[in-house]
Model the fold of this input.
Amino acid sequence: MALPYFLFAFLLTIPGAIVSTPTSPKQVDDKDLIHIALNLEFLETEFFLNGALGKGLDSIAPQLAEGGPPPVGAKKANLDFLTKNIIEEFGYQEVGHLRAIISTVGGFPRPQLDLSPQNFAKIFDQVAGYKLVPPFDPYFNTMNYLLASYAIPYVGLVGYVGTIPNLVNSTSRRLVAGLLGVESGQDAVIRALLYQRANEKVFPYHITVSDFTNRISNLRNRLGMTGNKDEGLIVPRELGAENRTQSNILSADANSLSYSRTPPEIFRIVYGTGSESKPGGFFPNGANGRIAKEFLAAI
Done:
């Protein structure tokens, strides 16, 4: 009998926990936990490189992909000069993140990623709560691309916050702390760029930028199924810093600390299914790594 999801998820939060499977006891170690993040780093690498350059990891550092399939549907976005330069830098940073993880704990083949306009259109239909016409295309212009980018790095950020307390080895903690620093910086830049235009309506939809961010955050909260750990750019005053502001350039809790998420929450969100055992969304075949595979096998 497979271990119940809730018990497995709880054990994953305990450093060095032993997880029993139908065949043998297995230990959740630093490598397993960091490998969850490796999936998200592949996702960000391909989205940023392709969005800025029209080419991805295979053209920059193909050995890091370890033979994994190229992403579906990724392409160059129609970005303004400033945003293109920022996103290009982010893409190169993500290549460094892949190298750092793989050289420290080892890697695995790049998972199949779906970065097609069609996939983003489905996601943003969920965000809006109805079918957008025309379908949302992340590569259409700078605004669309920034909103699509809002939907990605923050998930890795809260995942790293949740991972660090459960790491045993100091080398692993140093690695993830360094990754977290840059991921939070990327998220802050994206949120600041969007905040500058918070009250603008996103063409051709009758939805403002801030409303889109609120809806994206609300969707991630619903998929994560653990309450409020994600907030848009404009919030009620009771959710603002010290309950004194409605601006929310950085998403944080009542003490202005970053929210954290567990492995099951991360998979529920990036799969877009609300289930760590049901692939979809950005990972049509599921994520790689032992923890991801054991969740997928638990159906």
